[in-house]
Structure formats: C-alpha cells, structure tokens
Amino acid sequence: MVEQRKLVNMRGRTIARSETESFKQPSDFFVLASIFTNFCYRSVPMDLGEGAYGSVLGFQSKFDDAVGIAVKKYAQRCFRELQLIRSLGHENIVKWISAYTVAEPLSSRNQGPYSIYLITEYAGLDLRIRLNNEEKNKQYTLRSFKRMISELLRALKYLKSANVIHRDLKPSNIAIDARGKLTLLDFGMARAFNINQELTTDSGTCVYRALETIVVWHGNYAAWSMDERLRIYDDKADMWSVGAILCEMITGLVLFYVQVEPGKTASAIDVIRKALQICGPIPDYVISRFDTDSLRKKLRKENANASPRIDFIQYFREHGRSWLRREIEADRVDLDDFINRTLVFDYEDRMSVDEALAHPFLASERRLEKEVVAHFQIQDEENRSVEKWQERILEFINNPNP
Ligand SMILES: Nc1ncnc2c1ncn2[C@@H]1O[C@H](COP(=O)(O)OP(=O)(O)OP(=O)(O)O)[C@@H](O)[C@H]1O
Ligand SMILES: [Mg+2]
C-alpha cells in the first residue's frame, strides 16, 4: 500500500511545500491520464519526494492494495538511470515498469523539448522517513537493521558484478516496505565502473559520501585519466556510506550531520571536518594520492585539527536508541569491528562488499542462495550534448530491446 507521509527534514520537522509541485506542466496531464488508463491506478497521487533530479509521485493499484507505482519526472539528464534500472534485475533493487516521453511546450521550465517520466514499482517509505518516526521505529530491533544492511549489501554485490557503483547511498535512496524489505532506489548518480568521462558534480548532500568521492566531485579532476582516478577511487566508496547508514539506524542521528541554513546543503569541507572529528585524522599517504597541491594543503591543514577517533560502542551507549541497547551490548565486539572497517578513509583498507556479507556481525542474516550476481556488465555510454542525450533517450524508450 502506498503509505501517506509528511515531508520531513533530517531533524523531523515538517516542511511546508505545495504538493506535487513539479507535476503541473501540460505534458504531465497526458502522462497521468495514460497511467490511469494503462495501469488502472486510482486515488489522488501521493507526493513521494523531490530531489535534485526530479519529483516523484506515488499511485496505488485499483485492484490490489499491496501494489503501487512511483512516477519520477526528470528535470535533468537521466539516460544512465533509465538504462540502469531497466537492465538490472534484483529483489533489492527498484523495479522498472515503463517510461514515457512527452513533448513539452516551449514555455515550460524543462530544459529539453521532452519531459521524461520513469515508472517503477512502489517500494515503500524511504528510510529517512522511517528513521525519523520515533514511535514506529520501536518495531525495529538491531536484528531488523542487520537484515536491512544484508539486503543492501546483496544489492551492492549484484551491482558490482554488473560493473556498477551506486555512488549516492543514503537513507532517502533506500525504501523499506511494510514488511521491512529493502529496495535500493535512485540510480541518478550511479555509473558503470569503467567510467571514462567526467565524474559529474552533484548538488546533493555529501554527508554519506566517502572522502575520495567527495574530493573527486569537488576537486579538479576533469583532466585525470582513468588510471589516475583508479588510484584513489573504486567500488568500495559505497561501503563508507553503508557504515554511516548503520550508525544512523542505531541512533536516529545523521553521523556526519552538519548544521546548515534551511535550503542549503553542507559543503564538502564541512563534511570532511565533521568526519575528522569522528574518524580521526586522514593518513598522510591517502592525502598524498590526491590531485593538486591546494587540495592536499587544504586537507593537511584540516587534518591538524582532527580529534582522536571516537569509540563507536561508547557513542552507541550514549546516543543509541534505548530499546536497542541490550542487543548492542550483546553484539558490541562484532558491531565495533564492522563499523571500524567501513568508516575507513583509505579505500584500500576498507571492507569490501563480500567481506561485509561474510562479517560475523551479519552472520544471522546470511543467505548464500540470495547472494546472486549479474551475468552481464553495464557499459557506460560516451558523453553527449543535451540534444543528443534526448535523442538517445527517445530511441531507448521506444525500443523495448536495445
Ligand atoms: N519506487 C519508489 N518507491 C517508493 N518511493 C520512491 C520510489 N522512487 C522514489 N521514491 C521516493 O521519492 C524520493 C525521490 O526519488 P529519487 O531519490 O529517485 O529522486 P532524486 O531526485 O534523484 O533524489 P535526490 O537527488 O534527492 O537523491 C525518494 O527519496 C523516495 O522517497
Ligand atoms: Mg534520491
């Protein structure tokens, strides 16, 4: 069932915003009408969210309360996300249903001549909303969070086998359905790993991102060759986010939270500073891998003010949700090791997805038969102009088997 939700920010306050804000173009009418006739969905659409790349509406099935769809309207380039979601097939990855393009009148806000809509299966409320709901959270035990992390890791293992890094793991990109099943959403920043073009700058939050991901995005790497990038960056970038998400599950607090003015996102340097207070200094050999003297200088200067690494078990004792404390004590050795091997600045020392799946902390949730891999590799397409991307999208949507 598509659950009603309030729009909440990270601290749980309700944000006033007009519903379905971006679904007001004339073209939206055709798409929504088409959804009602083709999929027989009923009810007033529910606003599921709005992010950097578009806005998302949810609809519930006329016939079956358990089934719903999510419609994401794009404001920007989206070819890679469409391609990835249509190609991937995993029980913990959002499922493709269809996509539409509709010609936009010239007056519209949209950047191109077409609006693009992606239709996926509704996967439940996102984890940011779930974690913000103190009352309902009491249903989650440490064991339920372990199950979610295991499901997330299985999705990552599958992605890795298909040559894909998600690069934007965070609670709002993870949905949890009414039965607690996890679905990974939002492939807007995901890339095939043999990236040979720019690692685009993204306006989203970097509080869940690994150091190397933050500096790749905010540093001056445009001129780097693939080999040079691979020296500092690989698929373990997603594992840092797994550690940050697990901490947030346990405490309900964003681990690397940085206070910013409403409507703004924390800057890269603020997030790095926060990480230095929690995880201790960055080893100098990691800093020396990074490009540009100025970046290295900046990081070394920040490093001089780093605090000693915190004791995570002590942090959970102080800030963990009260009903999890018994389980945390019972599991403290494995939990401590799990966190300390994910929140590691050097990606080479960071735990891999396979090591995490086999970690004793998750032993009770291990399901080897569910650790499936893809039998294909996603190849990234070369960069194009906005017009050429639009052409490619039309060709892709109109061709069921590209
Ligand atoms: N299939 C789905 N099932 C349930 N909820 C969904 C689904 N797709 C999207 N959502 C909701 O809509 C929100 C925005 O979707 P998505 O993350 O794909 O967009 P985005 O614009 O790329 O977001 P951002 O840039 O903020 O990460 C999600 O955080 C989630 O709450
Ligand atoms: Mg998102």
UniProtKB/TrEMBL annotation:
Name of the molecule in the record: Phosphotransferase
InterPro entries: Kinase-like_dom_sf, MAPK, Prot_kinase_dom, Protein_kinase_ATP_BS
UniProt GO BP: intracellular signal transduction
Record GO terms (molecular function): ATP binding; protein serine/threonine kinase activity
Gene giving rise to this polypeptide: WBGene00274334
Domain of life assignment: Eukaryota
Keyword tags: ATP-binding, Nucleotide-binding
GO CC annotations on file: cytoplasm; nucleus
Matches recorded under Pfam families: Pkinase (PF00069)
